[in-house]
Amino acid sequence: MSKVIQLNKEKGIAAIEFTLLVPFFLLIIFVTVEFGRALFQYSQLTRMIRDAGRHLSQTIITEGAGMPTDLTDANCNGCISDTKNILMYGAGTGSSTLLSGLKITDITISEFPIDSEIMVISVDYDWTPIFFDQLSEFGLGNGIDLTFNFSSTYAVRAI
Q1: How far is it, in rounded angstroms, from Cα 152 to Cα 121?
Q2: C-alpha to C-alpha distance for 25 and 21, rounded to whole angstroms
């Protein structure tokens, strides 16, 4: 009879231990998934910028007096908007972005230093976690913001 009582107590203790440890294991799993996703998206962002930079270096007009002094689509036969579209959609046009949350206003293309024929593509991407974007402080103030900015830059010389 005492073995049966002892076995029932052990089952109850195991259930309590499981209940206490599950939230920590879930937290570790969610953090690992989000960290892996962040690394993947940063890698994808740098690949997209590299592809757009290659396109820009081959399409910008550098004949005659060099690169246009005013870097606009009118002066380079639409190369700026084409490059931004390739960075956003993977092609000249599209409706679905390659990177969720990336906006055309996050992309800047400039020549730096001036008159060097080196084009710099910069992207400021606001990364947001999947599961939650704020960590609650349980009524003690504002939540902790878990989003952060990926800033990536790629420089190419116009061919």
Answers
A1: 8
A2: 6
At which residue do the structure tokens 């001036």 appear? 114
Cα–Cα distance, 20 to 144 (Å, whole number) = 24
Q: How many Å apart are CA 7 and CA 27, to the nearest integer?
A: 31
Residue 93 has pLDDT above 90, yes or no: no
Determine the longest span between alpha carbons in the chain, in angstroms: 100
Q: H or E segment at 44?
A: helix 2-59
Q: Which amino acid is at 136?
A: S
Instruction: Give per-residue pLDDT as tens, 107-155.
Output: 999 888 877 778 899 999 999 888 777 777 776 767 778 888 999 999 9
